[in-house]
Amino acid sequence: MDMMGVILLIGFAGLGLLLGSFLGVVIHRGPQIWGLVESEGEDQTLSLAWPPSHCPSCKTRLRPVELIPILGYLFARGRCRHCETPIPRFYPIVESLGLFAGVISALLFASPLMAGASLAFFLLLIAMAAIDARTGYLPDALTLPLLTLGLGAGAFGIFVTAQDAILGWVIGWGCLAALAALYRLLRGREGLGGGDAKLLGAGAAFTGPYVLPIMLALAASSALIGALLMGKGRLDGATEIRFGPWLAGAIAAVFILQRIWPALPL
């Protein structure tokens, strides 16, 4: 790796870490702001910027040192300095995922433009996976920006051609939407949420349509194994499986595989 590559790697690692910290705020507050879940007692001015970061238990405002991604959690020993309430571990986990996304993007792409688009792609997937795991919703406030980014990148041929970006979107959304409609018709209840179809369509705008079978097989098998492990080997028709996290993971995995395994269809 040359000097420019090292600079890009360090820069995107730091950027991913900082944006990962902000992502924790999006994951925590976003569902409340968008009306997907009930407010947790925050005031009516709740936004991604206000009120400033604070302990959710005693409302003590965090000091600058406590806002340093990952290190702030370690300095505080995982607890609020005022009331000793444990700080949720998902914050340093999301920050670490942001760091990883920045590193992977810089390793996959030598172009800052492509690496930046890749980082935004990964961060949106992380946010949607976490929100769906926590609330059961995949918000349009995130799936639509992901789709816009994918189609925009396709228009300039950044990851796939414009035609493949559009085909990936249409076919990806259409196959899950049709499957959801069929399940609803046969079983008389919802099996797949509309957000899953939107997520697959938006993700396929980055990968093109030809890898959709691989993507769906990976997501479905991972979700099934995860459900069996969490259900201690038992699974029935009433078991709820939140598909979004597994689907987001499969989209990210296929996107990476396309870069490191040239034989995989683009």
TrEMBL record:
Cite the entry's keywords alphabetically. Cell inner membrane, Cell membrane, Hydrolase, Membrane, Methyltransferase, Multifunctional enzyme, Protease, Transferase, Transmembrane, Transmembrane helix
Bilayer topology reads:
Multi-pass membrane protein
Q: Does the keyword DNA-binding apply?
A: no
Q: Which residues cross the membrane?
A: 6-27, 97-130, 142-160, 167-186, 210-231, 243-261
Q: Which InterPro entries match?
A: Peptidase_A24A_bac, Prepilin_IV_endopep_pep, Prepilin_pept_A24_N, Prepilin_peptidase/N-MTase
Q: Which family does it belong to?
A: Belongs to the peptidase A24 family.
Q: What is this protein called?
A: Prepilin leader peptidase/N-methyltransferase
Q: Which organism does this sequence originate in?
A: Parvularcula marina
